[in-house]
Amino acid sequence: MTAKEIITKFDLTEHPEGGYYKETYRSNGLIKNNNLSEHFFGDRNYSTCIYFLLTSEKFSAFHKINQDEIWHFYSGTTLKLHMISLDGNYSFVLIGNDLLNNEKPQFVVPAQYWFAAEIIKENSFAFTGCTVSPGFDFKDFVLPKREELIALFPKHSKIIKQLTR
Question: 118 near 165, Cβ under 8 Å?
Fold first, then answer.
């Protein structure tokens, strides 16, 4: 299937960080705010899950959320996930199905890490899923301006300029 066919088949819409998504699961159960860390405001579902598709033309810009985020690879080509930890260390992981070349079909981005993703191969895409617990709420989503992130992490300005808008 092509990226366009997947977008149509699964009724994906554009995500504010870049790429396309659709929520596929939101648990009925709730975690009350007083049982969550100080980073949360309001109750959260136990868990949520989305389909997420990136193309070589549409990257996922640096952002962060309050939860761990589990990425699951479904199809397409390798996705490069960039991360900046709370103490400012940069790292990346390749998400895909080429296991012999150390690609990971599943990976957890730790809570509060800044992260972005891109497709390495031209004219291609990656179809993935992302699971978040406690469940995702846009109140937890921070999409910084380029200048804000560079001010926090000036030594990573090159990759920040590449993966912010």
Answer: no
- Concatenated DSSP letters of the chain: --HHHHHHHTT-EE-TTSSEEEEEEE-S-EE-GGGS-TT--S-EES-EEEEEEEETTB-EEEEB-SSEEEEEEEEES-EEEEEE-TTS-EEEEEESS-GGGT-BSEEEEPTT-EEEEEE-STT-EEEEEEEEESPP-GGG-B---HHHHHHH-GGGHHHHHHT--
Q: Flag whether the pTM goes above 0.90.
A: yes
Q: Give me the mean pLDDT over the 55-77 stretch.
A: 97
Considering only CA atoms, give the Rg of the chain: 16
pLDDT in tens, 9-55: 999 999 999 999 999 999 999 999 999 999 999 999 999 999 999 99
Domain 3-162 has CATH 2.60.120.10: yes
pLDDT at 151: 97
How crowded is residue 9: how many other Cβ atoms within 10 Å of its Cβ?
Answer: 10
Where are the domains positioned within the chain? 3-162
